[in-house]
Write a structure and sequence with these properties.
The protein is 70% helix and 0% strand. It has 126 residues and is mainly α. This is DUF1616 domain-containing protein.
Amino acid sequence: MIFLRLGLAASGWLALLATALPDASPVRVAAVTVFLLVCPGLAAQLALRPSGLLRRAGHPAAALEAALLTLVLGLALTTLVAVVLFLGGVFTATRSLLVLATLTAVLALLPRRSRARNRGPQVHAG
């Protein structure tokens, strides 16, 4: 799991590095598209539900559910960043990638939440 988190943290910076390639380069288009669609959403999902991806691994629809949630969260975060930058009058593709790379790295490197159980009042016989 730690390699997944480190890979997510580095993915945004690799996509930002890919923008130095020529404009219509297939590597640039693929790197930026995959990053925008998958990485911010997966980082947010891991930050919010660290064990949620594996909790229902035996369920047939668990992989589809996780993939769809990752895609939707990624698109939502990308749209939110673009709207904020547009409203601020400072939108560029490089700035939006920079903000998303930073957000993805922060979400991916957040420490995992402990799974403290909610224990009710304990009744002792006696």
